[in-house]
Specification:
- By secondary structure, the chain is α/β, with parallel strands linked by helices.
- It folds into 2 domains: 3-161, Globins (Globin-like), CATH 1.10.490.10; 169-275, Transcription Regulator spoIIAA (2-Layer Sandwich).
- It has helices at residues 3-14, 16-30, 40-62, 67-87, 92-97, 99-117, 121-165, 186-203, 220-235, 247-255, 269-275; strands at 169-170, 175-182, 207-215, 239-243, 264-265.
- Strands 1-2-3-4-5 form a 5-stranded mixed β-sheet.
């Protein structure tokens, strides 16, 4: 173990609350206005989290002889903190902006303690370089964990949106309605196709009314997805009826060369429901 690194690391740990408070004051005064409205207990937790991170950097400096251990501890912190900050609704850029404050205040400690202890300038520069490397790795680990967790959150929300935006609603023993609303991009179309086929099987329906009056964007891709849904339903013995087809949808289908005579088109949803025989 490098005794000079140990001395510098111990000093950083001893001053962890001082550094945390200095950073906290600067953040509240200059940038992080979102924290001002938080309750006192939350602000205390933030200070504790900052002090804990300062302590981690000090310990990592002490364990510079075992870089695997030092970086492993940093990675563990990054994963935990990235998830915590995401759940606390703290933006990634706000947290990353604090890295310059840690860099400034801890570098001052290393410099002043190095002079006080009479540490050789070359050793002091090496320790400073190692500290900056640790901090950079910590920010990388944190941001990576944050982004991964954020993406998972988006995927879950997207799945929930798909679930709510593609309801197959049974209106009789053998008839159901699928009202489509909004954009029909490829991922959503694939989900609708999968859910529709599953619902058709589970509900044992023979007729599915697909209402397109709420579809916003209509292009060749949308039309192709609609045709795929219709064809798949026919293959499993379900009669698809398209309603709410606006002129632009009809034009797009024609441009694609789709034989509209192969499609069952029922005008408006109201007209179609009035014509259906629910006794079958």
């Amino acid at each position: 173990m490098n005794k000079h690194y140990e001395i510098l690391g111990q000093r950083i740990i001893e001053d962890k609350y001082l550094v945390a408070e200095l950073i906290h004051e600067e953040v509240l005064n200059d940038r992080d206005h979102e924290l001002i409205g938080k309750d006192e207990e939350f602000l205390k937790q933030v200070v504790e989290a900052r002090a804990g991170f300062v302590e981690l950097l000090g310990e990592s400096l002490i364990h510079s002889y075992d870089e695997k251990k030092a970086y492993g501890a940093i990675d563990a912190w990054g994963i935990a903190t990235g998830h915590y900050f995401l759940e606390a609704n703290i933006m990634l850029d706000s947290a990353l902006a604090e890295s310059s404050l840690y860099r400034k205040h801890i570098a001052k400690i290393i410099k002043s303690e190095g002079k006080r202890q009479g540490i050789d300038m070359e050793v002091l520069f090496e320790s400073m370089e190692f500290f900056h490397t640790l901090l950079d790795h910590a920010m990388y680990s944190y941001s990576s964990a944050y982004i991964v967790a954020y993406q998972k959150k988006i995927d879950i929300a997207r799945r929930e949106f798909f679930e709510l935006s593609a309801p197959v609603v049974p209106i009789a023993d053998n008839v159901a309605i699928l009202p489509l609303v909004g954009d029909l991009e490829i991922d959503r179309a694939h989900y609708i196709l999968e859910k529709t086929l599953t619902a058709a099987n589970n509900l044992r329906i023979s007729t599915l009314v697909i209402d397109l009056s709420g579809v916003v964007k209509v292009d060749s891709m949308v039309a192709e997805q609609i045709i795929k849904i219709v064809q798949a339903l026919k293959m499993v013995g379900v009669k698809p009826i398209l309603t709410g087809i606006r002129s632009e949808i009809a034009i797009t289908l024609s441009q694609l060369g789709v034989d509209t005579r192969s499609l069952v088109i029922g005008g408006s949803l109201k007209q179609t429901l009035e014509k259906l025989d629910f006794s079958k």
